[in-house]
Amino acid sequence: MDSAVDIHRLHFAFTITFHYLFPQLTMGLALLIVVLKSLALWKGDDLYNKAARFWGRIFALNFAMGVVTGLPMEFQFGTNWAAFSKSAGGIIGQTLAMEGVFSFFLESSFLGLFLFGEKRLGPKLHWLTAFLVFLGSWLSGFFIIATNAWMQHPVGYQTGTAGELVLTSIRELLSNPWILWQYLHTMIASVVTASFVMAALGAFYLLMKQHEPYGKLFVRVGVVAGLAATLLMVFPTGDGQGRMVAEHQPITLAAMEGLFETAEGAPLALVGQPDMERLRLDNPILIPDILSFLTYRRWTAEVQGLKDFPREVWPDNIPLLYYSYHIMVGLGTIFIAVMGLSALFLWRRRLYGNRALLWALMLAVPFPYIATTAGWMTAELGRQPWVIYGLMRTAQGASPLVSTGNGLFTLLGFMGLYALLGMLFALLVMREIAHGPEAAAVEEQSVRYGEPMRAQGGIR
Amino acid sequence: MELLWFCLGTAMITGYVILDGFDLGAGIVHLFVAKSSEEKGQVLRTIGPVWDGNEVWLAAAGGAMFLAFPTLYASSFSGFYLALMLALWLLILRGIAIEFRNHIDNPLWVPAWDTVFGAASAVLAFVFGVALGNVVRGVPLDQNGYFFLPLWTNLLPGADAGVIDWYTLLVGATAFVALAMHGSLWVVMKTAERLQDGTRAFVAKLWRVLITLTVVMSALSFAIQPNLWKQFTTHPWGIVFPALALTGLLRVPTLSARRQDKAAFLSSSLYLTGMLASVAFGVFPNVLPSNATPDFSLTIYNAAAADHGLRVGLFWFIPGMALATAYSIFAYRHFAGKVD
Q1: Cβ separation B306–A90 shorter than 8 A
Q2: Are B31 and B119 in contact (CB under 8 A)?
């Protein structure tokens, strides 16, 4: 940690990791709330409305955290990565500004109406506000992925007279082939997180023998959505994303897989530790030929190893990249097992009484967060040493005049502030869970000061 | 094309200042006028459903600046690094205070968040004014278009000034009082009885300070930034901007005394618009003047993105903002009327 660039990288890594704990839940949860509201309209049972109201409260807390920790992300492009912003702002400024104009206004306007307007709007319009919040949050995800996709695989640009990058086609920017799989993979990951959270809370209520009708509903919706989402994570989205990497960033693929030697019929490493001194995988457990098949759909296809590429274009932290990728994939596999088994028991009508499975669902809740974070680390570490793949090195992108000392000062400031926010957030979520869905339904009616928030028109 | 984006950018910033300005100002009312927890809750309810949408204008204005003037974005954000990080922390604390305050009703939790909310709002209003002061005064840009300002040095607005000097402090104070009055007019419009009366009296006090500060600060600005004089003498029609500001400001006390509260709030908005337009007009064609070497100033021409990006940007930005304004109007109408 001696150079300013390292501080700027850590600054962004820390603030984005903390920030993304919240949107990954809200984007998926927005979809599940639309599901609950649709069930309410379709079945005419108020249980679903009460459930949607309760999740609306959890959503609001997460959304607030997402908003306040999101603003620093936009700022940091300019504050910490000025050289990158100066060069690429004419391009990524487009997608980032689109996010503000098309999704933030939509989300913020209709979230207020969703949270406080239920009685005045009536059931159908209220469903619409939930849908528009969902739409806004998923559009927001699209513009962020379009920005990241351009950094992973730049298109629609040319180099200007002063070396800056100039937009030549907004259509190419928005239809970048990298976007499709990365977008779907990221959005569905947020559905995985939201499903696990919903199922976990349902399992908790069932095990505690509290709010049991809600517990059953949460487990049911969480497991059904969770099974679909965990399967879609592998195929086609994860597979499509992997083949994009193989095609456009073969060095990254080799580093993720820990493949040092080029091989025909390349093996897939299940376990092993990259040894960067001897350039090999220690203690490997390999399955022969699988990597070749997954990448090129042929068992004997040649996959290039790291040694085939010059060292100066290797990602700069191969062990961490390798572990991030393996943690993501390993957890993803476990998720399918947990959700698959739960879905089987649900179908057999034996899930609600199966304590072992309910325990598993309840304890699983941190892991989708870890898997998603590991997935983003794979994408970002895999792009190194480039900030714009093939065009600009990360080291050239940092602000030239912001010193290490000033960077460290604000990094420590963010760490302290976020530690405090994290604790307060956890406290408030615990309280919501302890109060339960029925309390949420009652409080929605009260519009006076002093009673726990909501309807006061405040406070989303 | 650059000129059009400069006008759009100014309009976005003005939109942000008018909208988030009133809820920052409401924070100042909350700090100085609202006494009981009941009244503080009332002030918060006037901005509750809209403050977050107002803050989106900041993100959208930042986005517009990023896409149209990337060099300005890179240079100013990295140069004002410490001031911006401070503003971010305040925005975070303020947002969290509004969201968390009503979750737990006890005599520790609620007053603690009230203090955070009021203090963060007050300091933010001041910080935004200081930032505007820096844009008028200029910063020590180098030949690559970068600079880095410490928060303060010797408090003199010379070539080695920090973010804070006596001139930017004065602009900060003006902004603080202007937004306090603007927010008070909003609270007056949205409340009744004791809180409304107290806030109305606060407006009258603030107005006297504000008109003094506005006159002194404007006069000193001509001494600090020679480009202002050049602009207003070569294009005398530009005088309409300060004239609008003055008209707006002069009408506030009469309208407020006559209880025409909506008109008073709009007059205050006119004042803010006139002031910001005057600054934009006065520094033009600079967007960030250099106070060390005038040749290194960032102008709308050397800081802008390439033509294609600016042109396609217009195609989606204007309809997008029209749509966004429509949602905001819908949300405002839904929450129209006084809070109880």
Answers
A1: yes
A2: yes
| Calpha distance A124→A86 (Å, rounded) | 46
Q: Do A460 and B52 touch (CB under 8 A)?
A: yes
**Strands in chain B per DSSP E:** 286-288, 298-299
Q: Domain-by-domain residue ranges, chain B?
A: 2-334
Asked whether the beta carbons of A365 and A304 are under 8 A apart, the reply is no
Nearest to B111 by CA among B176, B48, B35: B35
Are B185 and B256 a contacting pair, CB within 8 Å?
A: yes
The string of pLDDT tens digits covering residues B152-195 is: 988 888 888 899 999 999 999 999 999 999 999 999 999 998 99
Question: Hunting for tokens 């969902």 — which residue is that?
Answer: A134
Between strands A268-275 and A280-287, the pairing is antiparallel
| Cβ contacts of A403 on chain B, cutoff 8 Å | 148
Q: A269 pairs with which residues across the strands? A: A286
User: Do the beta carbons of residue B52 and residue A67 sit within 8 Å?
Assistant: yes
pTM (2 d.p.):
0.94
Which candidate from A93, A160, A168 shows the least CB-CB separation from B66?
A93
Beta bridge partners of A263: A303
Hey, are the CB atoms on B38 and A64 less than 8 Å from each other? no
Residue in chain A lying closest to B141 (CA): A401
**Cβ separation of A86 and B145 shorter than 8 Å?**
yes
The end-to-end CA distance of chain B, in Å, is 48
Q: Considering only CB atoms, which chain A residues are within 8 Å of B92?
A: 68-69, 71-72, 417, 421
Structure tokens at A15: 């603030």
